[in-house]
Write a structure and sequence with these properties.
Elements lengths: L8 H16 L8 H16 L5 E6 L15 E2 L10 E10 L1 H6 L5 E8 L11 E7 L13 H12 L7 E5 L5 H10 L2 E5 L4 H6 L9 E7 H14 L2 E6 L4 H9 L10 H4 L6 E6 L10 E3 L2 E10 L4 E10 H20 L2
Parallel strand pairs: 1-3, 6-7, 6-8
Antiparallel strand pairs: 1-2, 3-4, 4-10, 5-8, 5-9, 10-12, 11-12, 12-13
Helix pairs in contact: 1-2
């Protein structure tokens, strides 16, 4: 980071994702996506503004006029005149897996990634990317342009497995009908998910998660978030913009995007000083969700940093009376901020 002493901002970002997760968790299974998202966004924004940084959201909830949430271009952080703070790009997803949270399903997680200013790829008008994400063992053997069978054979060889022992995660969407057939034809095992490909992409980098790779077209913003995490873990993602129709493709080309280019994690996040934090909202293979007891709530989070290659797994207990006080204080501060606009 420029113009500031070196510090692990990832540990500070855990407080951000914890707050978002704690705010979203009460909405689990209540099928109210908008209310859950607003609660998580408000908590995340409030905590981001306490971090000593000059941050700009590159990957957020959309353009300002379309998303009154954490919008692309929004400036956040505790930065004052003359204060030496790092200038950062931010990628945020207060709830990766809004539908699973709304339905009480697994693998909903709050995530934030941070890197040096100007280093994160902005996907512009393209909503989706075609992606292939793997862990460190297979980072150098994948090729998004290669046939599915060739990629799975290379991944299996790199991991010392048979292809039939691999587990490939794919979003359960009609657009993946041929991809699913191709994977099954190799004999590899398949895990179809309803939403959220960030968590399984991270899981592919970790031992004993039961995930070897993630394949298929998913959210373009999530591709940048995933690249941030994988740079910290030594994994790799190959991605190509995936226009939904000719109109979206034409608009992207007119804006200067190459829709045929295969990008790596180094293209999606150019910085070598990347931070990532994620906190579970509902239980998943990667992290546990928010759990309540008579004492309060517990959370499980990941904090990562690319320059050191360190990943911390953080278990936290939030006492009920303190948690209620914090939530009350947050509401007051949000009301004050709204009245000051």
């Amino acid at each position: 980071m420029s113009n500031a002493p070196d510090r692990n901002i990832g540990l500070e970002l855990v407080r951000v994702t914890e707050s978002a997760a704690l705010a979203a968790a009460p909405w689990m299974g209540r099928n109210k996506k908008i209310e859950a998202d607003k609660a998580a966004v408000d908590a995340m924004r409030l905590m981001l503004n306490t971090v000593e940084m000059d941050g700009v959201i590159v990957i957020g909830e959309g353009e300002k006029d379309e998303a009154p949430m954490l919008y692309n271009g929004e400036r956040l952080g505790n930065y004052g005149a003359g204060r030496q703070v790092p200038r950062c790009d931010l990628a945020v997803d207060p709830i990766d897996g809004t539908r699973p949270l709304a339905l009480g399903l697994p693998n909903s997680i709050a995530v934030v990634a941070l890197a040096e200013r100007g280093s994160m790829f902005f996907p512009g008008p393209i909503v989706y990317m075609d992606k292939l994400a793997v862990g460190p063992e297979a980072a150098r053997v994948i090729d998004l342009n290669a046939p599915v069978a060739a990629n799975l054979a290379n991944i299996a060889r790199a991991k010392g497995k048979a292809v039939t022992e691999l587990v490939i995660v794919v979003l359960d969407r009609p657009r993946h009908e041929q991809l699913i057939k191709d994977i099954r034809a190799t004999g590899a095992r398949l895990k179809l998910i309803t939403d959220g490909d960030v968590a399984p992409s991270i899981a592919a980098c970790l031992p004993d998660t039961g995930v070897d790779a993630v394949m298929g077209a998913g959210g373009a913003p999530e591709g940048v978030v995933t690249a941030s995490a994988l740079k910290c873990l030594g994994g790799e993602i190959h991605a190509r913009l995936y226009p939904r129709d000719e109109a979206e493709k034409k608009r992207a080309v007119e804006m200067g995007y190459d829709v045929n280019r295969v990008m790596t994690s180094a293209d999606l996040v150019k910085s070598d000083n990347v931070f990532f934090a994620g906190t579970g909202i509902t239980d998943g293979e990667l992290v546990r969700g928010v759990h309540y007891s008579a004492m309060g709530a517990t959370t499980e989070s990941l904090a990562m940093r690319s320059s050191s290659g360190t990943m911390r797994r953080i278990l936290a207990t939030h006492r009920s009376e303190k948690l209620q006080q914090i939530l009350s204080d947050q509401k007051q501060r949000l009301a004050q901020q709204a009245s000051g606009r």
